[in-house]
Amino acid sequence: MNIIVCIKQVPETTEVRINPETNTLIREGVKSIINPFDMYAIEEAVRLKEKFGGKATVISMGPPQAEAALREALSMGIDNGILVGDRAFAGSDTWATSYTLAAAIKTAGEFDLIICGKQASDGDTAQVGPGISTHLDIPQVTYVKKIEEVKDKVMRVERMMEEGFEIIETPLPCLITVVKEINEPRLPSLKGMMRAKSAKITVLTQKELDLDPQSIGLCGSPTQVVKIFTPPPRKGGQILSGETEEIAGKLVELIKDEVH
Amino acid sequence: MDYLLTEEQKMIKGLAHKIAEEKIRPVAAKYDQSEEYPWDVIKVIADSDLFGLFIPEEYGGLGVNVMNLCLATEELSRACGGIAVCYAASALGTFPIVLFGNDAQKKKYLPDLAKGKKVAAFAITEPEAGSDASAIKTTAKKEGKHYILNGLKHFITNGGDAEIYVVIAMTDKTRGARGASAFIVEKGTPGFSFGKKEDKFGIRASSTRELIFTDCKVPEENLLSKEGMGFIVTMKTFDMSRPGVAAQALGIAQGALELAVKYVRERQQFGKSISSFQGIQWMLADMATEVEAARGLVYSTARMLDAGVKDVAKDSAMAKMFASDVAMKVTVDALQLFGGYGYMKDYPIEKYVRDAKITQIYEGTNQIQRSIIALQLIKEIAK
Predict the structure, then answer these.
(1) B232-382 is classed in which CATH architecture?
(2) B23 touches chain A (CB under 8 A)
(3) Which one of A79, A147, A234, B286 is separated from A226 by 20 to 30 angstroms, measured CA to CA?
(4) Does B169 touch chain A (CB under 8 A)?
(5) Averaged pLDDT, A156-180
(6) A187, A192, A194 ranked by CB distance to B18: nearest
(7) Count of CB atoms within 10 A of residue B44's CB?
(8) Could you tell me the end-to-end alpha-carbon distance of chain A, in angstroms, rounded to an integer?
(9) Chain segment A99-108, per-residue pLDDT in tens
(10) Residue among A112, A97, A78 at smallest CA distance from A8
(11) ipTM of the complex in this document
(12) Which CATH number belongs to the domain containing residue A184 in this structure?
């Protein structure tokens, strides 16, 4: 079973600070980690590989430092790493990102399954996984909490719902996004870390992928970020006390004040 | 202080740190209370390859390296001295096979130990043979192609949970210390059973049991080295393992120090953090300095062993003795800084005091260590 895992490197903190002038994340001084949801994707890929054989490849689109995230995935048991990185891809929204990643996946050979985390902890869009499956024209199942069975190019999974879960059968190849209930990611092993340290990471740039320049990077991104802001904390309410008539009177006064 | 660790050593330290924080610290109190063997944590340590740090590469390990073993033991001990000793005691039980085993013995036993599929234990102590190891009463009598073992070992760390035991028994009582031999005994060998599990003051996650040998038939190919080599095996094993005990003590001290610094910053009295009081600051300064001095001694000794320096008995003894005395003092001071809260089991610090105490006692009491150091000093002068 050949598996592709898509991962993203994100800032460790959940309280990201934003540069008010450029509307971009302030990354300085913040440690980068693998998106926590992607850790479950990596673990599930390694487990499937251990069970069915085959190889697992991890792909990330990002700046050169995303290589560290790929190596960490390798230290957990993934076989190959591909970094999709080029200045030309900068500013990609989820559409352009999934288009570019889909093109990179096509270069990685035959695959049976693509696994993504359900969403990234920085952008929280949950769109890139489904986007990739659309660009590749393969089925997708989001929010998978369990892979029940893989047999004869068909996979049966449990898909998490707000209440309960669905059981879905899908032909392979397909794309799934996974939730944290699916497994408990392992820690890396020393042998894995040593192998990962010297492993070759394939770098794919616009030169190798040769994509339509209008479809990548900022140009290929229909989403425009107009403003990013931290919502102001809600102010505490006001509690009126006293006899009912008294409260009603106060309330009317307050509403009057508000209207004027 | 920067100990100029190699990339590989930083990797080992980092991984052991991650295991300690994510997998050990959350369960340390639970195992301390239940006294169960922490198999789930041992499995995590095994999957991380840390059991390979004391086993040669040709037998599935990562190469024998005392410094690497010390770094891993120190980090694990920061979170729990009890769980860390389950790991370190397997190294103690494995060293005799690594140092004195023949190729067949190594091939048979080391790969599973390197993967952590099995853990090992070392058994020399008996009710009447502690520091005086020559008083061993367990016997091994040759009969045909077997040795028949009879006797009782006690206070054996990993006893009952380990699969592989290295047992010291007398093959020739008339020769005293030179009549002792070392045997590999597998759990399940007929005539080999376990006695009571000890209810201990500290390191309660680790198991300590009696080993009982009643006409236990051990195949002759399980003899390590030759007959009469039992004490040489023991001494050489302890030379290798003592820095590990020292690293355990060091980790416990470091862990307690970190908790204390964090606590005094948060604790408010007289309207301010108690870390602003000079009396508290001076205690912290002394504790940190002592821990760092212990670390220097432990790492230097480990590096000497790895570099193949011949006579390390004195240095090994100094490292073990000093680091464990520091652990005792620093943990007691850390508890003092926690005040009344520190005395309560709801807080993690009293466990550090209990876990530290054993490091002054086992693998040679600190009094025995001082004797080793003094005798060596006198010998050197007499040369």
Answers:
(1) Up-down Bundle (1.20)
(2) yes
(3) A234
(4) no
(5) 95
(6) A187
(7) 18
(8) 69
(9) 999 999 999 9
(10) A97
(11) 0.84
(12) 3.40.50.620
